[in-house]
Amino acid sequence: MSILKKINDDLKESLKHLGYDVENINLLPSKVKELGDFQINEAMPLAKKYGKNPRVIAEEIAEELKKDSKFTNINIAGPGFINVTLTNEFLTEELNKLVDNVELNIDKPEPKKVVIDFGGANVAKALHVGHLRSANLGEGLKRLARLMGYTVWGDAHLGDYGRPLGLVELEIKKMYPDLPFFDETFTGNYDEVELPITNEDLEKIYPLASQKSKEDEEYLEEARIITAKIQNKEKGYYELWKRIVDISKEDIKEVYDSLNVDYDLWLGESDSVEYFDELYELFDKKGLLKDSEGAKIVELKEDTDKIEMPPLLFIKSNGSLSYQTTDLATILQRKHEENPDEIWYCVDGRQSLHFDQVFRAARYAEIIDPKVKLEFIGFGTMNGNDGKPFKTRDGGVMTLKSLIDLVNEETYKRIVISTDSEEEKKDIAHKVAIACLKYSDSLPFRGTDYIFELDKFADMEGKTGAYILYSTIRMKSLLKKAEDIKYDKMYDLYGNVEKEIALTLMNLPTVLNKTLETKSLNEITDYLYKLTSIYNKFYSENKVLIEENEEKKISWLVLTKLVYDVNMLLIDTLGISVPEKM
Fold it and tell me: Bridge partners of 76?
């Protein structure tokens, strides 16, 4: 149980003793620090409920709280706002319980099973800057949910089934018409066929093929035919598709690994197809499928709609499945294979209509239990100084690899490390670069667009990943220098800054629960910066290791360890690695 929950539970009992029944009490940070650490606002709603003057109720509560040794400076402001200050004795006692495990200060909700769909990489295409936010947000939420006691599956949900693959195979066929994959008479082992295509080739082939399809209707029609061959598992085309997926997936994994992003499931749209017959039957039984110019659609419009809700395209006129249909089949797949309580989708906010359609259709067909929550977690875009999605200097879409390299180079130029090893410096620079990218990407609320500014991202000072890392490593260094000192108990809080650190540490569960509620990592990044900045103020004002008062020195070391442990917990939640030195 967290420190805050313990206080709130005690307050609830105090009110019950006075004859007031309350479901929950929230101890809120005081708006006027001179009046106290926290504010209790329960007198007003209780006055309304019991028909009494709020000031009278506040006075009753204040008198009751004076019997509690954890409170001091109890006073009433305005119509009934009760201000209280926590005693140093209470705070040190509670913080000492966390010395060996800061996670004791976390309030975990009821356990759930959650699938998080994030990443959304497309096979045979280069990951671009837009994939950063999906990977970053999804990984952070996955780690947070596990920290809070959830069972979680992170799913890459690869785009591996649509027309782009048909276009890629068509262009490969044009380039290498003699490959056995295109020979209907071939009877050998496709696995032994040497494929003269690398991932770099694939990243060039798709844009080329896509452009041709826009200019040549016959080319596009041929791509449609090949797409159907792949989806029908026609021998050579299907085997080539598998090879392309393997090549592309290996490169995608490499990029995600560099971002400390890990998936439990590497499934694609194609993996859901085996559930299509069951899906079709569910929609057909309920009479949801309508004919429309050779296609099958599902009408979704409702009288209460405030915006236009187009029908969902279930089967295209050429017989192939739409992206919406494979998403529906994937929901059915997850029901059978993971049976989650919730499915979260971390996707660009511009796809909100798509998921409105998919979720509504899923409910109509009852393909999943109504109690299962389907949540769209949309995010904004990373933009350039022109306010448009970030691009290369020549105006092209920047790959995620290029973005990482860009920040890597800038970080390498800025960091000063006492090492003669070039390899070690590059490794540290990379970790700092990833920290800068991920921390800066998580600073704004997830739904907000933001401007990518390289100088600010890689800054060693201010609200940056580099600042958080440097400060945390310095804490670790201080504790290492004190490893011969036994510091397992805090004796007191000796100043206002220490008290502020203690109160900030106490607020950890509020930050984690709010992050879980909003599904936005900015609560964590803000908290990390606040806690680190307060600690740095304390560090600059005190010489911990040469302090002559032994109890004070030990108390300061315990406080340092608590801040360090919380920082490390949250840095890991953000998917950031901490180098040994910096």
Answer: 82
C-beta separation of 164 from 210 below 8 A: yes
> Can you name the residues that pair with 158 across neighbouring β-strands?
268
Q: Which residues pair with 389 in a beta bridge?
A: 383
**Confidence (pLDDT) at 387:** 80
Buried b (16+ CB within 10 A) or exposed e, 353-390: ebbbbbbbbbebbebbeeebebebbbbbbbbbeeeebb
User: Tokens 């069951």 correspond to what residue?
Assistant: 278
Percent of the chain with pLDDT over 90: 84
With CA atoms as reference, report the closest residue to 457 among 411, 526, 412.
Answer: 411
Question: What separation in angstroms does the CA of 507 have from each of 67, 270, 523, 578?
Answer: 24, 45, 12, 24
pLDDT in tens, 565-577: 999 999 999 999 9
Cα(571)–Cα(577) distance, integer angstroms: 7
Indicate the range of 68-82, 271-285, 384-398, 522-536 predicted with least confidence.
384-398
> What is the rounded (10 degree) CA torsion for 272, 276, 278, 283?
120
Question: Which amino acid appears at position 314 of this protein?
Answer: F
Q: Cα separation of 69 and 340, whole Å?
A: 45
User: Please, what is the average pLDDT of the chain?
Assistant: 94
Question: Angle at Cα 387 formed by Cα 352 and Cα 356, nearest 5°?
Answer: 5
Cβ 457 vs Cβ 444: under 8 Å: no
Q: At 440, which helix (H) or strand (E)?
A: helix 422-442
**Cβ–Cβ < 8 Å for 467, 532:** yes
The neighbour count for residue 225, using CB atoms within 10 Å, is 13
Both tokens of 373, joined, read 């929550």
Whose tokens are 């909003």? That residue is 518
pLDDT higher than 90, residue 25: no
Report which of 58, 262, 247 is spatially closest to residue 165, judged by C-alpha positions: 247
Report, as an integer, the average pLDDT of 101-120. Answer: 96
Buried b (16+ CB within 10 A) or exposed e, 30-45: beeeebbbbbbbbbbe
**Do residues 263 and 256 touch, judged by C-beta distance below 8 A?**
yes
C-alpha angle 138/143/147, rounded to 5°? Answer: 145
| CA–CA gap between residue 148 and residue 517 (Å, rounded) | 12
CA separation for the pair 373, 280 (Å, rounded): 22
pLDDT at 393: 63
Q: Which two tokens stand for residue 541?
A: 């004002």
